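During the no-cost extension, the postdoctoral fellow (Dr. R.K.) reprocessed legacy sequence entries with the updated structure-token encoder. One reprocessed record is reproduced below for audit purposes.
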Amino acid sequence: MRKVLGAISLLALIGCTGGVNSDVQANHAKQINKKVILTAGNEMQTMDESLLHAKLEISPYYQDAKSMAVELIVTNSSSVGVDLQFNSGMLADLLLIDPKGLKVWAWSDTMMFTQALKQIRIGAGKSLKTQFNVPSDILSKVDKRGFTLQPKFKGRSLETNSPIVNDISVELRLDH
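Re-encoded structure tokens follow.
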């Protein structure tokens, strides 16, 4: 009798587990159908003449990802090296700006940096790269057109008062 009850209990347990598993798979399939993709539009520049050239490279973001990868590339196109000074360990920041021009998020809001002066030389034809990740909970706020990513380079030239990098912003495009 114990063997029969044990076998029935085991079958009931296996049957329940299989039912839960199929429900989970069904819910997962429903979420995949509601795909949200954020991609970058064209880069907008507001300044042409600068010591260095800045560019943003943005990987597409899919709703099931944890973050969107963004890289700021600052390039020295001249034939001589450029010496830069930084007031902290932060080389650059990245801001998410809403359609009204208000800051929604800054990468540096949740970061800590050393408070030491630092000098970096970017050689002729060389680049300095800074990587950022925009978290998915921040990207969920991008629900219409007009949101932009704007990098803020923190280096200062030791030799000139000219603008260091061109001001750029990239609009995020929402695709369903």
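The longest strand covers residues 37-45. The chain has a mean pLDDT of 77. The remaining legacy entries will be reprocessed before the final report is submitted.
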